[in-house]
Amino acid sequence: MLGIHVRTRRAMPPETRKNDNRESRRQIVDAATELFTKTPFSDVNVEDIARSAGVAHGLVFHYFKSKARLYEVVSQGAADRLDRLHREALQRSGTPEVKLTAFLESHMMAVEQRRADYVFHSRGGGSPAIQTIWERSRRNAIHLILELYGVEAPSEPLVVATRAWLGFFDELVLEWVQGRPVPREGVIAASLSLFPAVMRQARVLGAEDAPTPRDPS
Description:
The chain is mostly helical.
């Protein structure tokens, strides 16, 4: 009697499948990050992302459900990187003014690398989740700056005043990154000059804990 041999497919080990899933997901996020930083959100489609990532179109929806959800993941990664750059800049040696200058420079460098994305979310683009991500990053920046001047638990009036100063800086950066006639050095110099004045006015708002930064010479 002849034996019949049935050829069966070996099941892929669970750990291998998990690694493959992680790698595919990472490729999608990396591809989306590169596209969103250079191209407005509305001009990027899922087909472009899948093609750039080298994966099947359906995998994008499998892992992220929608382009908007994928953009949230990309935005969180960008916010985390920006927070890290801010911390590293403020940990450099030197006076508080030198460190604040490094903070502004690192911020502008990061913005320049992801200009399309920066303009999009700064003008209110994206879901409420996107705005929440960047609001959290903004509050992190505010607290880092105030800690630089020895204020670890700032009052709300002081947070509001610092937010106003950061908003001034952000508006100048928006103009600069869009190619308007606002020089990088001018953005930094104007923001540094305004900071001590804003801290003085913070006391008018009731911020008794406002620091007294040195006016730039």
